[in-house]
Amino acid sequence: ELRYKMGEAAIKAASAIHYESVGTIEFLVDKNRNFYFMEMNTRIQVEHCVTEEVVNFDLIKEQIKIAAGETISGVNYEPQGHAIECRINAEDPYNDFRPSPGKITTLHQPGGHGIRVDSHAYAGYTIPPYYDSMIAKIISVARTRSEAIDTMHRALTEYVIEGIKTTIPFHLQLMKDENFRSGNFNTKFLEGFKMK
Q: Active site residue: 43, 87, 98, 154, which one?
């Protein structure tokens, strides 16, 4: 019911401004399950892969069709299962997530059922110090949230990137954190999170 209400509010907001493209309307939800408008992003989100995986729908393809003036399906897709995305950045989680530019000397990306990796990186690629430090996005998808977390943990243990520091250790620790696993966290969660 909450998801339906937020969806209706998002459609109403986009319709009110005659918006025609892919975008994201974000809400905050309080402990009483009331929701509040936070922002609208008039572009595809980095996290769009999570949506694509749970609704089995190519958002980039649809965005291009809209821009070309083509009609899209308009089907109201119902999410199936759970998906989690981890951004793998060239940053050192043991040093305040400071950038870690340099050359990737070894790269082995995970795979298998329930795993998607979107990346431009390869062994020999040099991470420049001037731009966004994101190397890849790993998306896990499964029937339940717990299974998606376990699938993500497996993928993170299989991911090998050498030559630079990455956020993989942070994500591995996060996937094992009981508060994260149980969904018992809020926007201040990371303030008390310590790397081990």
A: 43
The closest alpha carbon to 3, from 76, 68, 75, 52, belongs to 76
- Asked if the structure places residue 9 within a domain, the reply is yes
pLDDT in tens, 95-122: 999 999 999 999 999 999 999 999 999 9
Domain that holds residue 14: 2-67
Active site residue 43: yes
Domain count, the chain: 2
What is the reported pTM? 0.86
Domain boundary among 67, 100, 116: 67
Residue 27 main-chain phi, psi, to 5 deg: -130, 155
Tell me the pLDDT tens digit for each residue of 48-78. 889 889 988 888 888 888 889 888 776 667 8
